[in-house]
Amino acid sequence: MKEYNLTDSYITDITEKKALSTDNLQVYYGDNHAIFDANLNFPRYKITALIGASGCGKSTFLRCLNRMNDKVARVDGEIMYRNTDINSSKINVYEVRKHIGMVFQRPNPFAKSIKENIIFALKNAGINQKDELEERLEQSLKSAALWDEVKDNLNKSALALSGGQQQRLCIARSIAMKPDILLLDEPASALDPISTSKIEETLQTLKKDYSIIIVTHNLQQASRISDYTAFLHLGHIIEYNSTVNVFTHPKMRPTEDYVSGNFG
Ligand SMILES: Nc1ncnc2c1ncn2[C@@H]1O[C@H](COP(=O)(O)OP(=O)(O)OP(=O)(O)O)[C@@H](O)[C@H]1O
Question: Cα(252)–Cα(94) distance, rounded to whole angstroms?
Answer without folding.
Answer: 38
